[in-house]
Amino acid sequence: MAVRVSFVGAGPGATDLITIRGARLLRHADVVIFAGSLVDRKLVQLYATRADVYDSAGMTLSEVISVMLDATSSGRSVVRLHTGDPSIYGAIQEQMEALDRLDIDYQVVPGVTSAFAAAAALKQELTLPELSQTVIITRIEGRTPVPEREQLSAIAGLGATMVIYLSVGMVEKVVGQLLQGAYTATTPAAVVCRASWDDEQIIQCTLADLAERVHEAGIDRQALIVVGDVLAARREGLKAKSLLYDGEFTHGFRDGRVV
User: Fold this and answer.
1) Which 3 state secondary structure label does DSSP give 206?
2) CATH number, domain containing residue 143
3) What is the DSSP letter of 171?
């Protein structure tokens, strides 16, 4: 039996950053339910030209599942389109559990999450030797609770590259908690708002002036905060290069040599 429901990652915003598989599923979908508060409607209009389209921004979980059930019961295919990658703050778990109870088969198609679109906008590698080999994707506690062990002040102790979602509206609180960890006022920071969209905004600063710069720019949503020493590596001339292409480094495809 063909899979009738596909959870698809729309990517970070730009219409050409959806995967080929995701675009193909949209083109052939009978019904599309998309997160209208986050996914660009142009993407739906471009690819889903034959589908009945529902904007889930004002819908409840039961209403979303009802649309899926009605469609699949009549043999129609459904694409549930989520921003970025569905597995990162995608709120798909409860939808999949509901489909499991209804014995409706589904699949998940990954997408480009905004963390990597932000890194691309900054032209920055997030994992540099001797500076950071760990990327933490997290958020600060707001209306949605965060486990005690994952409070920002606790995980900030690692000092790794950190990409903070859904938190720019509480930027002062973010800075305060980061400064309780391994970061300092001079730690490099950046904010990328609406990464890959036509109106993308980029702020590059330090933790000391992060809040002020965010408020000056009028950014209060749809933005990521990136923090870590990797952000200053290029401008400070730090030696943080991979050995992969070092002529003296031996690996399975090349013998090292003195150059």
Assistant:
1) strand
2) 3.30.950.10
3) H
